[in-house]
Design a protein that fits this description.
Elements (H helix, E strand, L loop, with lengths): L1 H32 L2 H17 L12 E3 L5 E3 L7 E7 L4 H17 L4 E7 L6 H8 L4 E3 L3 H6 L7 E5 L5 E6 L3 H18 L6 H4 L48
Parallel strand pairs: 3-4, 4-5
Antiparallel strand pairs: 1-2, 3-6, 6-7
Length: 253
């Protein structure tokens, strides 16, 4: 009896390491079984949830109204007819500050193409107006955007949203991806141009044959120099002033 118990214990001792190896191997195989595409889809779902929140590409952007630095109210729905990009940011946010020079450059490049860019100041602890002014950034600034950030499902900043000229969302992104943002802006501008509602540039407003200051003058019009005689031509005598009549003596009384 005692020998049988000892045999059972010996078999069990040998089985435990093998079973452990099988568990480890099965776990490793399960990890390897997840294809890169499947893992990437999982990452995309997680990033999408944090990135876009309640606002999805293809949906109509929620309307909002915020004050700018001058105290004027800016309403998203009133900007229809333009491509609109909004950037949720704060002065204490390092990635936000790092993105701002590129955002300023986009503003300068795309403004004439019908693109409006606004930085929506969110979760602020400093002076956004002074910060932006000191840095020399000239794209739009909207203040006290905490509720709008909640409305758009923003969970981290910077967060970017781009709407086409009809107010439909064409891009959402948490973090700054300049290449993707530029591609979305180009798509928005292309749609705007195809709609026939793109704003005209200053040069586009002028007819091609419009004359400038010099063009308004006819070629044969004589200016001040036109009164001068041509080479070899004797100048015409200017009429002499008529002699003044000597004053007559007043008759003596």
């Amino acid at each position: 009896m005692k020998s049988k118990v000892m045999s059972i214990l010996a078999v069990a001792a040998l089985a435990l390491p093998v079973s452990g190896l099988l568990v480890v191997a099965s776990h490793a195989m399960a990890q390897q079984g997840d294809s890169p595409a499947k893992r990437d889809r999982g990452k995309d779902r997680a990033q999408e949830k944090g990135r876009s929140g309640n606002v999805r590409v293809g949906s109509m952007a929620p309307d909002f109204s915020l004050k700018n630095a001058d105290g004027e109210t800016v309403t998203l729905s009133e900007l229809k007819g333009n491509v609109v990009m909004i950037d949720f940011w704060a002065t204490w946010c390092g990635p936000c500050i790092a993105a701002m020079p590129a955002v300023q450059k986009m503003h300068e490049e795309y403004e004439s193409k019908g693109v409006k860019i606004y930085g929506i100041n969110t979760w602020e602890r400093g002076d956004a107006v002074k910060f932006k002014k000191d840095k020399g950034y000239t794209y739009g600034l909207l203040l006290e955007g905490d509720e709008v950030a909640k409305q758009y499902g923003v969970t981290g900043i910077p967060a970017f949203f781009i709407m086409d000229h009809e107010g439909r969302v064409i891009y959402t992104g948490q973090g700054f991806n300049e290449r993707a943002i530029r591609q979305a802006l180009d798509r928005g501008v292309d749609r705007l141009e195809k709609s026939g509602k793109a704003p005209k540039t200053e040069d586009g407003d002028k007819p091609k044959d419009e004359k400038g200051k010099d063009g308004d003058k006819p070629k044969d019009e004589k200016g001040k120099d036109g009164d001068k005689p041509k080479d070899g031509e004797k100048p015409k005598d200017k009429p002499k002033d008529a002699p003044k009549e000597a004053p007559k003596d007043k008759p003596k009384p």
